[in-house]
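Forum: Protein Structure Q&A
Topic: Joint prediction for protein chains with partners

I've read a bunch of threads here and the consensus seems to be that you should model interacting components together rather than docking separate models afterwards. I'd like to see that in practice. Below is the full input, 676 residues plus whatever partners are listed. Could one of the regulars post the assembled result?
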Amino acid sequence: MKIALRHGAGGEETAQLIHDIFAFHFQNEILNRMEDAAVLPEMKGVPIFTSDSFVVEPLFFPGGDIGKLSVCGTVNDLACMGAKPLYLTASFILETGLETEALEKVVASMAATAEEAGVTIVAGDTKVVEGNGGLYINTAGIGVRPVGCGISAENLQAGDAIILTGTLGDHHATILTQRLEMETALQSDCAPLNHMVQAVLDAGVAVHAIRDITRGGLATVANELAEASGCRINLEEEKLPVSEAVKGLSGILGLDSLTMGNEGKMLMAVPEQEAEKALSILQKNKYGKDAAIAGKVTEGSLSADRPGQFPQSTATAGGRVAENLLKKNMRIYCQLRR
Amino acid sequence: MKIALRHGAGGEETAQLIHDIFAFHFQNEILNRMEDAAVLPEMKGVPIFTSDSFVVEPLFFPGGDIGKLSVCGTVNDLACMGAKPLYLTASFILETGLETEALEKVVASMAATAEEAGVTIVAGDTKVVEGNGGLYINTAGIGVRPVGCGISAENLQAGDAIILTGTLGDHHATILTQRLEMETALQSDCAPLNHMVQAVLDAGVAVHAIRDITRGGLATVANELAEASGCRINLEEEKLPVSEAVKGLSGILGLDSLTMGNEGKMLMAVPEQEAEKALSILQKNKYGKDAAIAGKVTEGSLSADRPGQFPQSTATAGGRVAENLLKKNMRIYCQLRR
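Posted by a regular:
Agreed with the consensus. Here's the joint model:
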C-alpha cells in the first residue's frame, strides 16, 4: 500500500496507520496512553533537551536507514552533553507514494535502535504531504545528566588531548556512493554512542567536551569548539583515523575526510593525563575500536588573527590539513541529505 | 535571498543563517550557548513531553502563519494535559527557493507567539531539501504539571459537561478559502491557549479532560475521548458555536464544521456542577469569548454497539450531527496541510 493524503487527514486512516505501524513497533506504557502529550516519570538530574530532523536519501543504505539515523542523531546529541538519553518523540512527514512496507521497515529500525540505546519513544506525530514517496523524520530527546557535570563546547582547556572515537567519513562516503550508484563495500557508521560515552564517564574521566562529528565534518566541529572555548585545536593529519576504503574514494572523487559527515563518531576533549585511559575504554567498545588521539588543545584564538571572518581552527601538521581547515566547509552534505 | 542547498551544508552559510535569523529572533540564555543540546534549569512537577510537525500551505494566512501555528500547536498540546509549557525546540526543513525574508517573518512570528505563551525556544535544527520554496517546522515541547493532576483523555466521567472554548471551523475555512483564492473576512483561530487553561485550573475547577480540536475536528476528538474513557459524548447541534461566516461557507462548499480543524479551540470536560464557573472564566479570556456548553458525557460505549468498527460518538440531537459523527472523518484537512 502507498501512503496517500487520506492517511494524514486525522480520521480512520490516520488512526489505522498509527495503530498498525507506529503503536505496534514503538509500544510502551507511556506511548500507549495516546494522549496529546506524554506524561513522564520523575527524572533525577539536570534535564537536557534537543531535536533534529532527518532528510537523508536514499532512505535505506548499507549500515542503516533514516530511522536508525533519526534515533542515533538525537541520542548522540544528548550523549555529547554527558547526558543519559531517556525519552524521544518521533514525528514523521510522509510523502504520498511512500510504500507502507518501507515505512514499517524504518519504524522497526527505529524501535530496534531505541532499544539498543535504552531510550523510550513516548510521543509522535504523522503528517502527509504531496510528494514522491519520500520521508522526513524529526526526533526530539530528553536526557538527564548529573548536577555539576560541566561538559560543554565552551569547556575545552589548553593541554586537553583530542580523541576521535573512530574513522572519519564513512557515512558520508556511503551515502554519496549510493547516490552515485557505485558499488562499494562501504558502510555507514551510524550508531548510538551513548553507552560508550557513559563508560568513559563512569570510569571517572574528567571529560571537558564532546561533539558528534556529523554534518560539516571534523573541520566544522573543531572550528565550533575552538570558537566556543576561545582556544585552538591542533590536529595531526597522520593521526586522523580514516579507513582505506574512504581514503581510496576520497582520492578518486576529490573528497576531504575532514569535512565529511559521520553518524557514529565523536570528538572528545579530555585532560592529557587521562587520554590513554579514555582511549582504552573507547577501544573496548565496538563503536570505538579505531579510536585515536589525534591532536591537542592549545591557547590562542583565531578570531583575533582573522577579524571579521568566521573563526577557523588551525592544524599544526600537513599543509593539506591546514588548508582544508581554513577553507569553507560547504560540501555536498546537504545534497546528501537531499 | 533564496535558500539554497549550501545553507544546509553545515558550514559558514548554515552558521550565518542560524546567526542572522534563528539566533537573532529566538535569543535567550539557554539557546545562546549553542551546544548540541540545551541544558535546562530544574523543573518542579511532572514532566510532559510532546512534538508536532507543521506543513500548512500557504505559509501565511489571515490570522497567522506556519510559525505561529507551530508554537501554538505544541503549547496547546501541553496545556491539554494540564501542563504549564516551558521549553520548545524548533526544527526547520527548508525547501530550496524559500525567500529568507519569508523565513525571517515566520521565525519572528514564532518568537512573538512564544513570548505570549511564556515559553522559551531552547534548541533547534535546520535542514535544506530540494523543493519549491516550502517550509516544514517541527516543534517539541516540555512542560510540567502538578503531581496528582489527573487530566487525561481516559478521565471523562458520566455527567461531565462538555465545554467548547469557541467557534468551530475557523482555521480550516480560512486555509481552504486561501487555497481556493476566495476573498473572505475569515481568520484562522490559531492561538496559544495555555494561559486560558491555566486560569480555569487556577480557579480550582476539577477539569477531567481537555483536547485541542485540531486535525479531524470535533468529531474525531470526541470519538477519541469517548473511546479512551469508555463512555459516550452527546453533543447538541444547536449549541455548537459556529460563526456565521463559517456557516455560510460550509453551506456553499458542503463542509461540516464538526470535522473541520481548529488551531485555537479546545474541548473541556468538567463536572456538571463546575461547568458554569469554568465557562465564565473562559469567556473572560479573548480566546474563549464564544465558549459554550455543548453537550454532556453519558455512560455507555459505542465499541460494544458496533464491534469491529472504529468507535464513534453519538449525538443526541440533530440527524445531521449524528450522521456526520458516524461518517468517516476523512476530509480535506491533510490537503490543507499540503
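The mean pLDDT of chain B is 88.
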